[in-house]
UniProtKB/TrEMBL annotation, chains A, B, C, D:
It holds the Pfam family GATase_7. The active site is at residue 29. GO terms for molecular function: amidophosphoribosyltransferase activity; iron-sulfur cluster binding; metal ion binding. It catalyses: 5-phospho-beta-D-ribosylamine + L-glutamate + diphosphate = 5-phospho-alpha-D-ribose 1-diphosphate + L-glutamine + H2O. Pathway: Purine metabolism; IMP biosynthesis via de novo pathway; N(1)-(5-phospho-D-ribosyl)glycinamide from 5-phospho-alpha-D-ribose 1-diphosphate: step 1/2. It comes from Solanum verrucosum. In the C-terminal section; belongs to the purine/pyrimidine phosphoribosyltransferase family. PANTHER family: AMIDOPHOSPHORIBOSYLTRANSFERASE (PTHR11907). InterPro entries: GATase_2_dom (IPR017932), Ntn_hydrolases_N (IPR029055), PRTase-like (IPR029057), PRTase_dom (IPR000836), PurF (IPR005854), PurF_N (IPR035584). This is Amidophosphoribosyltransferase. Its cofactor is [4Fe-4S] cluster; Mg(2+).
Amino acid sequence: MVVNSSRKLINLDQHDDYLDVDDKPKEECGVVGIYGDPEASRLCYLALHALQHRGQEGAGMVTVENKVVKSVTGIGLVSDVFNESKLDQLPGDMAIGHVRYSTAAGSSSMLKNVQPFVTSSKFGSFGVAHNGNFVNYQLLRAELEGKGSIFSTTSDTEVVLHLIAKSKARIFALRALEACEKLQGAYSLVFVTEDGKLVAVRDPFGFRPLVMGRRKNGAIVFASETCALDLVEATYEREVHPGEMVLVDDTSKEPQSMYLLKPHPPEPKSCIFEHIYFAQPNSIVFGKSVYESRHAFGEILATESPVEGCDVVIAVPDSGVVAALGYAAKAGVPYQQGLIRSHYVGRKFIEPFQKIRDFGVKLKLSPVRAVLEGKKVVVVDDSIVRGTTSSKIVRMLKEAGAKEVHMRIASPPIIASCYYGIDTPSTEELISNRMKVEEIRKFIRADSLAFLPTDSFRKLLGSDHTNFCYACFSGKYPLYPSVAMEESIDDTMKLTVAAN
Amino acid sequence: MVVNSSRKLINLDQHDDYLDVDDKPKEECGVVGIYGDPEASRLCYLALHALQHRGQEGAGMVTVENKVVKSVTGIGLVSDVFNESKLDQLPGDMAIGHVRYSTAAGSSSMLKNVQPFVTSSKFGSFGVAHNGNFVNYQLLRAELEGKGSIFSTTSDTEVVLHLIAKSKARIFALRALEACEKLQGAYSLVFVTEDGKLVAVRDPFGFRPLVMGRRKNGAIVFASETCALDLVEATYEREVHPGEMVLVDDTSKEPQSMYLLKPHPPEPKSCIFEHIYFAQPNSIVFGKSVYESRHAFGEILATESPVEGCDVVIAVPDSGVVAALGYAAKAGVPYQQGLIRSHYVGRKFIEPFQKIRDFGVKLKLSPVRAVLEGKKVVVVDDSIVRGTTSSKIVRMLKEAGAKEVHMRIASPPIIASCYYGIDTPSTEELISNRMKVEEIRKFIRADSLAFLPTDSFRKLLGSDHTNFCYACFSGKYPLYPSVAMEESIDDTMKLTVAAN
Amino acid sequence: MVVNSSRKLINLDQHDDYLDVDDKPKEECGVVGIYGDPEASRLCYLALHALQHRGQEGAGMVTVENKVVKSVTGIGLVSDVFNESKLDQLPGDMAIGHVRYSTAAGSSSMLKNVQPFVTSSKFGSFGVAHNGNFVNYQLLRAELEGKGSIFSTTSDTEVVLHLIAKSKARIFALRALEACEKLQGAYSLVFVTEDGKLVAVRDPFGFRPLVMGRRKNGAIVFASETCALDLVEATYEREVHPGEMVLVDDTSKEPQSMYLLKPHPPEPKSCIFEHIYFAQPNSIVFGKSVYESRHAFGEILATESPVEGCDVVIAVPDSGVVAALGYAAKAGVPYQQGLIRSHYVGRKFIEPFQKIRDFGVKLKLSPVRAVLEGKKVVVVDDSIVRGTTSSKIVRMLKEAGAKEVHMRIASPPIIASCYYGIDTPSTEELISNRMKVEEIRKFIRADSLAFLPTDSFRKLLGSDHTNFCYACFSGKYPLYPSVAMEESIDDTMKLTVAAN
Amino acid sequence: MVVNSSRKLINLDQHDDYLDVDDKPKEECGVVGIYGDPEASRLCYLALHALQHRGQEGAGMVTVENKVVKSVTGIGLVSDVFNESKLDQLPGDMAIGHVRYSTAAGSSSMLKNVQPFVTSSKFGSFGVAHNGNFVNYQLLRAELEGKGSIFSTTSDTEVVLHLIAKSKARIFALRALEACEKLQGAYSLVFVTEDGKLVAVRDPFGFRPLVMGRRKNGAIVFASETCALDLVEATYEREVHPGEMVLVDDTSKEPQSMYLLKPHPPEPKSCIFEHIYFAQPNSIVFGKSVYESRHAFGEILATESPVEGCDVVIAVPDSGVVAALGYAAKAGVPYQQGLIRSHYVGRKFIEPFQKIRDFGVKLKLSPVRAVLEGKKVVVVDDSIVRGTTSSKIVRMLKEAGAKEVHMRIASPPIIASCYYGIDTPSTEELISNRMKVEEIRKFIRADSLAFLPTDSFRKLLGSDHTNFCYACFSGKYPLYPSVAMEESIDDTMKLTVAAN
């Protein structure tokens, strides 16, 4: 949610080493909304915990009781930010929450950018949590500043606050609607207002997920993924639809629904990468089981790119596991834990050992010689971004005795950066933008390499196929970033964009 | 600088016990500006240290280099907030800084209110530090919110940012001028802008102090008091005048000056309490030596309210010491250290011992039996606010053997709350508003009690006399708070205000 | 390593809720020794990281350079305790390190118990790190105190320091040998001395693991498991043998070896639970691949306790995964990820949600409906201790749609508490000590339940079989705790012990 | 209490800059004991606060209830170490406490050295707090280590624990007595035992102070100074006498007294520097008012070293104030606050500004031009150690306009380092050891300089005169440090010692 231009810069310079360990795109946030439960803040805490994989560097919550809006935000994991006493400071039966992926160290300016944001306006205070990215942020901000607005964060989310405050509409939902109709880009937003309204809204393309559920006591729960509903024991009802705004307050028994008409009517383009990498396997995202998608990706790979006489199928854990199981099942080859992942490696862990040498992936992944020695190995990963990690994994497997290493990637080649809420490196850095598959294979020194064919999505998703965004694989963006954003893109990138 | 209405509330409820230990009004802030020194952040750090007595609960600094604005703020003393590495994050040859007195515990919302504030607007980023209180804050905020502005703090200072951003003027100084002309109340402000301008301005009444000095290398230094100039080895040049705005940038060799014409032309009403209590004795404030003022107050007391046959003159340290020395000198009676002040008592110290009993003043002040035993004692304090501390001091002195205790107060009775940047209790709580001098004497159980006669100021200040604000002693306010503020004032207070 | 008696108490009272989430025995520590590498502290840091699963609550390191012994210890993970600057404070080419599982919260007394311990004696300073438990600690301590020794920790490890200091032998290795010959119980110890000697020793039963490896530059590395050797790129050479003391210093090119003769000659009784649960699957422990052992346990279960017509095999992650893969492979049934484990659940996480209800296992494990719905499920776990978690897992799986749940446990029933370095609940709490298998099945509401038959070990290990300790499964202890310890054992336990 | 040898080293190397700001000897600790009050820990907290001037870098407390010994220690001020919840962890009606001056930064090894120490021995646990310095520490430690004792701290206090544990006596008081009879040096010790005994003891020379008082409820209070008794509302009864051990337990209504017979019978040599500098002016120390002593020192200076025609007498605050008042009173010249001391300057404050230049004293002391300009000034300080600060003060006063600066020192020249619990620089660094008075005057550029004549003590103290230690002024030590200690003394020092 931090503006795209600066984000790209940070990736290149500061976090290269860290990203190297993972070489994955980074999801930028999860959101939660709870309405009508006396334990709202505790439920929100649990739901945020369930969404922790969507952002580990900041968390926050806003509650409302008796027209008083309270907020706690902080740097770190959900369990770092909240404790018993902090939750006690958040009374009331409605709450919104946010987990955040972020790129800057623990500075005081960073804390400013941790959501939910709360602001005060003429019709009272309200809070907002945002997952996504506004591609016309720079234009909107310039326009607002031109009219004398001041900005206190570097987050694109702040423009929503201004747009809402500037709306002449009488009631909050209409103000929010009017504001959203000016936004372009990817967003799943939840709002809570001083006077007790909870509003959830998803952009007309529906890039980012947002679901709605209900607890036995009637409390309504919104969350980025269904795994959060499960943990708070809410039953999944449905997605918030692309372009839909859902309002919950005490004037009606049921949540009420409105649709955005601008900048264009709903036109679903859900992010396929949620199914490939971001979401938890136990979630239902965009109406489909993530586990089943990944398993099917693995099965397709086994069918399309089989490895004759392979001994064992292993995964790059954790994200490659389900696809690897699918591959193994389809291929009739045993799945084994050939790589073990350490769960104690955080960003701060990496600093001290750099003086010895580049340990890279070794800290996070350990090979199991008993599984690998003398074997013809198929290793399944979910995606390749810059390729640096893949080459280290191949070397690691061979050093642990693998006779052959055949890499299978449960997604097509990533050739274009994302502008809709995912933090991918610049297009220039994407290995699949620079090399053909065979070149990549040589670069990572695998005995064979295959990606998921793009048209697998068509087979798998059927008529739903057109409802997804594949821009990172095709370079065909449903929506272009605004001029101001393009200026911050390097030349190579612009050419690439132009070419599509 | 936190808005008056909530402040009053906090005094009454939360900090009663703490204030009890001191029973003094609280200064609300000190400001610093440095222009043209390569060590700007380090000098600013020293200057803030020298102003630490003006605010101990938060500190911050903003510097500018190459159009990049950097900021560090934090809770606590200057030395808690800054260290070598933090100062290294603040490069550049210009800086503004702030120390803050505040009333709320270390919550994340508190940190938001720590100054300087930095904001971004269409003509770039700028920072501001503020000492004072805008009496038309509520009206201005309502007006701005009515036009769609959003507020992210509860500090009155935020309105200045909005007003500046909304100005149509082309250059920053004119924007700031236009904004200030809409402000009513007490303020000494320093600004720094992205494009390298430093601006210092004082309200037309000049309630709060602000001085200008110069280092040998030509660097210009603004500060609330001259003691800050001394520490950074800047020579005191002059006050920033009431209603004056001073601009320093690289377009001219000398600071340039403009004057506010609205809401009214300059009409000096400097806060006499700076001389009585707030400022450091080694400062020159409003062109006069604070030490000399306090010494003279003591001398006047000795002349007007002598104590026949007294043995010793002592002070309530630290603020009563200079007046006590004046009293002793004039009366020809030895001054002794009859009370010793502990410098290890902070707010957090007080919590654990409350379970035993109300130790109150005992933790901060210790009597010296060797000085007091069997003596007829004159004890000089600078002021009485609620009277609770004074009665404890009298009892403490008698328990330590004093035969008689004659209290002399180096200021007139305080009968009215302040709206110009000082945090006094509500008028209702002021003992001198509720009791006559003789009643107070009985209440505190002193053998005699005398205040400084109000007309001493006339004698002492001569023709300058009319340039000071005595509202806390007279109830005659140079400027009324806005309607919105009055609504937050309790009834007693309104009557008092009306009566004047 | 904290004394057994108090440990039992703590389990019962304080950590019930936490243990409930896991219901596993707790390993009590990992140790590391590095000799002859200029990057000793950084290598030790990496090795401790690789052993992090053996203790997450405290870590420490001691290095020696130029006769100066330096030490850093702290509460938390290895990455919490050390950073670049801390490692820079630990110069030298030899280091010992320790990770610790512990039971008490972050008190100052806790910090005292974090190892390695450093002490000063007449022949200089030395440090020690200990994995294990001395069963004659109470007797030794009483004896030492009787002679006037004072104790500054509550850890049994401290007696070694005293025994070494009291030895009359001239050189350190002989002092250590003499001391160890007085110890009874389980221990793998590493020492480092002021004058540059590194000593590693394992008790005559060899209960706890300790391996030796070598880096390309000739540096010698000792560690609890081979996974630590792998990370520091040391080649595994061999185990330190039961009853063996290995000395490394600059007087010889090769490590030198001595054997303890008292209290009895070496008689291997290695802890089988290392293969069942504690060690990393990629480690070689007691000369055998942990992965292969667990896979074989699963295969045996599939053979001995098949489930007719089952649809899917799942694991209780992470410790049950390898056995589940073995089961699935042998049974020819697909393995799937039916339970997903959260890696963000630490002890502090659990506090706030307890007010809602007992979420127990739900926070750590999430079921995958896509895998479970309508299926006949085999779920493999490594062990059952108190049974509370198992019953929650069965319920969770059924709620997620499983038609039948058949639990398979990759170890025999645990019927007796451990005195050799593992923190198991008291015998009274062990479900298998209180119930028969069928009763347990009913208690956990599984459709079937089977444990690994005890004689599987014989089959699997062949002639090595007699070299392992199975006390937790048989109640037949190779070594009894001392009288003082027994007194702290509850009556039930004593009966059990007597019965064997 | 940290061993002398290392201490000297640290002074020279690490803390030069910090000491420079003060140039005073450092007191090394204050102790407290409370017996028979249900609020023991809170009273102890207050008493430690009252003794905060005796040590600001560490604090701790030990309480006993129902045979359970509890301890809290930490780095920092009393109010940093304790809070409500920490005090709640310290139940019981008896407590001992300690404040500590120390020289090393916040390392984990430092925390080990924070007192009170608690240890466990065959007759149970006990705690000890120590003010002083054992001159035969090295010998005792070598002897104990020779017998196999191990040491876990670098503090000389630890030997007492060993000596007590090694005693064969049946009851604690006799064990402690036996141990103390082996100690040589300066000590005021308080002990508390598991079985509810409080013991206070002072060395036969009585170098360091220790007083006894009683609260209205009968509770007995021991403390280094009477100011601690005052704060806890205990009435001062008497000193613990040199060589006396006082035992309080529930077997007798009154404290019971014993005397040490070894190494020699009581022979009072109280530290005169307590009256000159360390103690609070409101304390009674060694039976005399500190305030009166200092006032008299000032009076003597005025008589012996008058300054013809001087205009004003000022003090170097805070320690020089009382002597300055004495001087002013005797000389009939007005006393003024010519220097103001900042109370916000801690050690950490100093780091960042060093890059600008050596601000030294300026941060702590500010001159008052209104007092000094054009004046002939007498400035009174309590002592001169290395002389660096004095020269800066003289320059500061002259820069602030003083016409002449006449420095008067309220103690004789310090020519020898202390071995009895005071941290003075090595003899080599003492300016009075290297220069004659006139040379010092030139060095500090004062217009005149005079010290207190040594025989003033005789006049002032009368027959008590011989009961004080003047070693720092005479080099005549009542007790020599042990051989081991001497070895750590540089050559110059040894010569000096030999010469006396």
